[in-house]
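Assemble and predict.
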Amino acid sequence: MRIQTKERNGVIVLVFQGKLMGGPDADYFRDVVHKLIEQGKRRVVADLSGVNWINSTGVGILITGYTTLRKNGGDLKLLRVSTKIRSILYVTKLNLIFECFENEDEAVASFEGD
Amino acid sequence: MRDIMAESVIIEFPSDYKYLNMIDMVCGEFINDMDFDHEAANEVSISIIEACTNALEHGNKCCPEESVRVCLTKHPDRLVIEVFDHGEGFDFKYYLKHIPDPSDIHKLRGRGIFIMKHMMDSLYFDMVPERGIKVTLEKMIRKQSGEVA
């Protein structure tokens, strides 16, 4: 898995590429999130359009990022979630936790006023 | 007794995450001519990845010398997926009665069995002597009316 980072209006957009399946991915994403928090960047959007394979551990990795950011006064929102990821979120009821967007502008704008 | 109409494929791979997409692709190709709709095919894809993840993580402890074996069998009315690991096993009878809440946001893991149970028509575990755990998943083919084929 690779993550590219960009910033828009004070919101960090993490662009995921490849597989999100546990193993080293969990440590990698945790490090990315902790570095962002250290830099005072806590408003994060995860763009998942480049994730072609995911499992429940991968969803667990996103949940860990979400809880870490929330504990630090931030949030993690999801962008361009595939049908498979959406199915996993629905069956586990984690769709009630994550805000999901199809459009990057809307995802970034959703942090306004926070 | 073996179904004379059945068609099988067996795949064996080292316990490494990098092979999971290959398994998904092979399975996708294998079920391509079965009458699963898009949603059912997605559920099969998600479930086979969960079963293989459990086998390599919990069964084989990610040891690359230990392989995971996957057997796909196509029947006229259903797909059967069997996944074998080399693990010591676990108390699956207890676990199936006490599946953790998948919406618990404090847990990184522990959602795989819940997902398979909800996305497939049947899920069961067996201890295979001198091998490890076998998980069997079945997905029935449904007509548009929702009836089983």
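The radius of gyration of chain B is 15 Å.
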